[in-house]
Queue: 2 jobs
Job 1
Amino acid sequence: MGFVVDRATMEMVCSAQFWRMALLWTLSLLFSYLGLLFPEPLSSLFPSLRPNPSYPRRGVSLNPSSELERPICVVTGATSGLGAAAARELAREGYHVVLAGRSCQLLSETMQKIKQQQSDACLDAFQVDLSSIHSVVKFESSLKQWLLDSNLHPSIQLLINNAGILAKSCRVTADGFDQMVQTNYIGAFVLTNILLPLLKNSPVPSRVVNVTSFTHRCVTFSASSVDVSKETLARKNLCFLPASKPYPFAWTYEYSKFCLLLLSYELHRQLYVLDPASSVSVIAADPGVVETSIMREVPPRLSRLAFMVLRLLNLLQSPDKGVSSVIDAALAPPDASGKYFFGGKGRTIRSSSLSYNSKLAEELWLASSLLFQETQHAVKDSETN
Ligand SMILES: NC(=O)c1ccc[n+]([C@@H]2O[C@H](COP(=O)([O-])OP(=O)(O)OC[C@H]3O[C@@H](n4cnc5c(N)ncnc54)[C@H](OP(=O)(O)O)[C@@H]3O)[C@@H](O)[C@H]2O)c1
C-alpha cells in the first residue's frame, strides 16, 4: 500500500514558512530551555541566559468578611487546550472563573466538564470574539451588567489573555485586520484596555497574564528593522499580498506573540512601575510546546508528525502540565510583575533582548491605541448610519 500525500500537505512541506516553523521554532524552544539550565559562571558571557528567580504560588484567601466573596478571573479562549486547563485550575484555586469564548456550545460543554471534576467550581460563561472590536466592547458591558445584577463587587482580579490561533491562510476581519494579528494581539490589547478600570477598581492587587510563546525569539533583528507601525499592525502591506505570494503564517504568528510580549512589558512599566497605586501587575507566560488544537489548520498528517517528533525529544507536554507556567504567573506575588514565566515550578527566564526594548514597546502602544480609536470610531459611524 502506497503512502499517499495530499496536495495541502505537499504544499506546506514545500513552503519556506513550514521550514521556518520546523527549524527556527525548535531552536527558539531549545534556547528557552537553556535559559533554565545554563550554569551561573557562563551566564555573564550570555546575559540573555542569566538565571532568573523563581516565584512561589500564593494561595487565594477566601475571606468571608472581605468585600470579595471570591476573586474573579476572566480567561479568554477557555473552550480548549490551555484556556480550558487554566479555567479548571483557577476554579480549583478558589477563583470565580469567567470563561470567555466564541462558541456558546463549547463554553457550556467546558463548564460541564469542569463541574464534573469539581462540583463546587464557581463558573460563568460569556461569548466574545477577540477578532472583533465590537464583540469585545459588548463583552465588557455584559460583564459589568452581570457584576451589577449578581451583586458582586464592580471589579475583577485576574485577566488571562490566552485566546490565540495559528492561521494558515490570510483572512481579513470585519475590522479590516489580519485575523491572526487581531486575535493574538490586537484583541488582547483592546480587552485589557477596556477591562483596566475593573482591574484598577479591585480592593486587592489585581493582575494581567498574557500567554505568549517562545516563537517570539524568531523576531530577532535590530529594533530599527522591526516594524510596529500602525500600517504593519493593520497589515496594509502584508495581508493584502497578491494571491500569488504565500501568506507568511509562521512569521505572522511570531510577530503577534512578540507584540503581545512587548505589550506585557509596556503595561508593566505603565501600571506597576510608574503607577504603583494602581496595584495591577502584568506578567507574560510561555507554556512551551503543548498538545492542543493550536495546529488545527495544519494538515493533520503534519501536525501528528510534529507532535510525534516533539514527544520523542521529550519536549511535548499535555495541557495539564503546560498550563503550569500560566498558573504560576497568575498566582505569583506582585513583585513578579514584568517577568517571563517558563518551565513551570514558578521559574522565570529572560525573553529575547529585543523584547525588552522600551522604545519599541512605546511605539507599539501608541500605534495600537490609534488603531483602536480609529476602529471604534468606524464601528460607531457604521452603527449610526
Ligand atoms: N499549544 C502550544 O504549544 C502553545 C505554545 C505557546 C503558546 N501557545 C498559546 O497558548 C494559547 C492557547 O492556545 P492552545 O494551544 O490552547 O490552542 P487551542 O486549543 O487551539 O485553544 C485556543 C483557544 O482560543 C480560542 N480562540 C481562537 N480564536 C478566538 C477568537 N477570535 N475569539 C475568542 N477566542 C478565540 C479558541 O476558541 P474556539 O474553540 O472557538 O476556536 C480556543 O478556545 C494561544 O495564545 C497560543 O498561541 C500555545
Note: The pocket of NAP is lined by residues 76-77, 79-83, 101-103, 106, 128-131, 162-165, 183, 211, 213, 287, 289-290, 292-294 (CB under 6 Å).
Job 2
Amino acid sequence: MVDLGNGFGFDTHAVYNQPSAPTDYNLFESDSTIVNYLHGRGSGLDDLVGLGELLGKTQTIEAGRLANEHPPILRTHDRNGNRIDEVEFHPAWHSLMTLTIGEGVASYPDMADTRKDAHLKRAVGLYLVSQVEAGHGCPVSMTYAAVPTLRHSPELAEIWEPGFRSRNYDFGLKIPSSKAGLTCGMAMTEKQGGSDVRANTTTATLTASGTYRLLGHKWFCSAPMSDAFMTLAQSRNGLSCFLVPRVLEDGTLNGIRLQRLKDKVGNRSNASSEIELAGAVGHLVGEEGRGIKTILEMVGCCRLDSLIGAAAQMRQALVQALWFARRRSAFSSLLIEHDLMQNVLLDLILESEASSLMALRMAHATDQSGIDEGESDLRRIGIAISKFLVCKRAPTFVAEAMECLGGSGYVEESLTARLYREAPLNGIWEGAGNVNALDTLRAMHRQPSTVDALLSELSKSRGFINSYDGRLDELEARLVGLEVSEWNARQLVGRLGLLLQSHLMIENSMPELAAVFVESRLGESWGAPTIGCLPKIPESLRKGAIEAASLGL
Ligand SMILES: Cc1cc2nc3c(=O)[nH]c(=O)nc-3n(C[C@H](O)[C@H](O)[C@H](O)COP(=O)(O)OP(=O)(O)OC[C@H]3O[C@@H](n4cnc5c(N)ncnc54)[C@H](O)[C@@H]3O)c2cc1C
C-alpha cells in the first residue's frame, strides 16, 4: 500500500508536520463529559460504546463527507412527464439514515422507558451521529418530535405512531401502511412569515369525508421525501394543525408539489424545499383553531434537538482542534504545548463541556417531565434559554476551533469547513435567537412556576463559589416582579444561560475547572453573552443611529 504520509509523489519536498484527520477513535468513550454524566446517573453505556466506535470508523466519517459532496437532487417528473415529486439521495445518505434510525434516534420513547433515561440516551445518540453528519439529523429529529403532537389525535396516532417510532428505514414513494418505517416532516413557514405563523395564508377546507383539502404553499419544508408532514393551515376556526401524507392509502400521490430545493449555505446533504399544497388531503390533529398550541409540542422537541445539535458541533470542532494541536508543531513545539494555545483550547473545552451539560440536563428534564411538574417547568424555560445561548455561541466557537488548524481548517477537505457552514443554522430554525429570547420572557410571564423551577435548580449550586452566589442574587432580584423589557431580553436570557451553565459545571465538572468557568463567565464583569446585549439607549439616539447607518439602503 502506498504511504501517502511519507510524501509519495513529490521529488521537490517531503510532506511532514501535516496531521491526518481524526479517525478510528470512539466518539462516545473519548467524551468524558457525556460518559461521566450517564455514569453518574447509573445509565447503561454498552449501546453507546458500540455506536461511538462505529461512528469513529473511517467509512462512517467518509459517508458523512459523501452525503454532503453529493447533495440531493429534485426529480419533479418521470420520463413520461408524470409528476413524481421525489428527491434522489446518494447511497451514503441512506446508509446514515439506516444507521441512525436503527439506533432508535428517530423513535420517541415509551412513557415507561422515560424512567430509564430514554430521552437522555436518545439525545446522546443524536449528539454522536450529528458529529459525523448533521444534515440527516433533520428528518430524524422531526420524526422523533412529531409523536407528542400526533398524540393529540389518538385515532391518528394509532395508525401513524408505530411507523414513526419504528427502527426501520424504508425510503421511497409507497403506501404508508405498507412501509416498515415512516418519517415525518414539518411545514409551517410561508413566504410572508416564519416566526409569525399567524400570517399563514394556506387554507384547509373540510370535505364530506371528514378530511380537509389544503391549498397554498410553504416556503421552507425540509425533508420533503418524508412520508407525512405536520402542517399548519387556516381552517374555518383559525390556524389548525394537519397531518398531510405524501402518498395516500389508495396509492395516489397527495397534492404536494415540490417546487425547488433550497441552495443552502450548509446542511447540504439534507433536502429543504419549497412546496405547493394543491388540494392536498390533510387529517386534523388536535382541536381545530388550536394549531399553534398543538404543533408547539413538536417545535419544543425540535428545539431540544437544535440545542443538542449545536453542542455536538462544538464537541466535534473541539475534537478537530485538539487532534491537530497535539500533532502539529510550530516554533519547535507542538501547538498544544504553547501557553497561548492552551488558553484557547482550555476555553473551548470549558465552553463545549458546559454546552453539552446543558443539552444533557434538558434531555433529562424531558424524561422527568411526565412525572415531575418542576422538571416539566424547568424544561419549558430551560430549552428556550439553552437553545438561545448555545446556538448563538456555536458559530463563534466553530470559527475559533477552525483557526486552531490554521489554513488547513479553512479548506473544504477539513471537517471544520462543513461544521462552519452548518453552525448558524441551529440558531435560525425552530425559532431564531430573538424568538427564543422572547419565548423565555413569555414563559416567565404566562407560567411563573417556570421561574421558580429555574431558581430552584440554580440554587442547588449555592455555597461553593462566591461569584456564582453573587450573580444568582443579582438575577433573583431582577426576576422579582419580572420587569424585563424586550430591549433587554437577550441580555437577561444570556445571563440566565451562563448561570445555568455555571451551575451544571459546579455540579458535574472538576471543581477547579468549574471555578475557572464561573470566574471567566460570571466574574468581575458579566461581559456580553451574545451580540444584542447593549445597555438601555435613548430611543432618539437608537433611531438616529440606525437611520444614519441605513442611508440609501
Ligand atoms: C435550512 C432551513 C430549513 C428549514 N426547514 C423548515 C421546515 O422544515 N419547516 C418549516 O416550517 N420551516 C423551516 N425553516 C424555516 C425556519 O424555521 C424559519 O426561517 C425561521 O423560523 C425564521 O422565520 P423567517 O425565515 O420567516 O424569518 P422572520 O420571521 O422574518 O424573522 C427574521 C428575523 O426577525 C427576528 N424576529 C422575528 N420576530 C421578532 C420579534 N417579535 N422581535 C424581534 N425580532 C424578531 C427573527 O429572530 C429573525 O432574526 C427552515 C429554515 C432553514 C434555513
Note: The chain has 18 helices and eleven strands.
